[in-house]
Write a structure and sequence with these properties.
The protein is of the alpha/beta class and 455 residues long. Helix content is 41%, strand content 13%. It has 19 helices and 14 strands. Helix 4 links the parallel strand 1 and strand 2. The longest helix has 17 residues. The chain is globular, with a radius of gyration of 22 Å. 53% of the residues are buried.
Amino acid sequence: MNSNPKRPALRLAAVGVTAVAALALTACGPDITAGADDEATSDRLQAPSADKPEGEITIWDRSGDLYEVFDAVIDDFNKKYPDIKVNHEAVDINAKLQNTLITGTDVPDGVFLDDALVGGFADHLWDLTDVLAPYADDIAPQKIDATTVGDGIYGVPYDLNPGLLFYNAAALEAAGVDATTIETYDDLLDAARAYQEAVPESHPIHLEQSPFLGQLQLEMYASQLGTSIADADGELRLDSPEYEQILTFLDTVQSDGLGTRAEYLSPTDIAELENGNQVFYPWAIWFDFAPQQLLPETSGDWRAMELPAWEDGGARSGAMGGSSFVLPKEGENADLAWLFYEFLMYDEAGYSAVWGINDIYPAGLNTSIPAYLPAADPAGPLFDPIEALGGQDLWEVATTAGAQIPSGTSIPSWWNGAVDYLGNDLQKMLDGDLTPAEVISSSTDAIQTNLIDRQ
């Protein structure tokens, strides 16, 4: 996750076309799922057996501050593996990866990739089930689900992006609304109505206007309920009580005038956050970037808490976005690249360097938390309290929330393509043109016909 958390989310939006094209790409690669058990096993990456592994690896990351974070860890990696040379390249992955995998030319050994894209490239990637086995029980289950295709795991989980409820504590206190009493989404509606009564011009709850980000947020809500747009076999499950409940909530926010309709951190969105008209923002942890850098008037007024539950005692968080590291099968030294990612994610020296205090992030990287649960210990913060959140210990809030994210939230290879249907239908509902039932029916039919049946 970069320091500007708009980038992790919006880069997914920018590659919607690439992801849809990746559906065709999967048909071009070798068949790694069919055949006898020994064939499937041969597609599982194995760690190097040498006592002192040596060689050269090429690692692709996106340019920017997160590239710099990973780059700075290479020296620490080489203290453990002095004979592995790391060529670290800043690459436009969305533009280059597909053609590189198709042609098999200059294929990197490891690539940083959005979770939503992993399934579309799985035929060209190593199954990491065996190398991840020593750590799998300690990785957030949602991240294992997000990178699982069939019987294989195709990504080394990087970050966990727990959903949180950000709220303007100062504005709510001035209006006589106690946000800390919010435990369910019904409570959130009650609090929004109370705030609107005190501040009549307000529309307290954020309603996302981007089809892509709206769908991403919808899946955060679904993740809380242990579901997602499709199951592990790629079968649609939109037509369910869970999605009906979520869509009904969003429709209520819209129809009752309780929502500010704006695209995430657009000028309109920022203005309504700064003037106190929008005071509740259910979003991933990376919204904390806003009060730190984009909300000078209300910086220090904001706080974060776990998401409300859909029912009493329910999960208080869901996943929203995320990335992993993948290892292409045509890379020359993918086994050595695995050692780099193993160090980065599962060695204390590695993950402490990524999320802890460093030259790039003097207070630590606070727009995500590790997907590796021993690294995400609530009692062992890797980043400092955040002054823009009034000195709040966001680490404790986020790790506690993250531990509640249910498993069972698979990401199908056609996820980005579904934005043309589900994402757009969600916006039509917020326009008042569709009911929740019509969103479910329309999107289910369109996704099945235009995406799933054409695979």
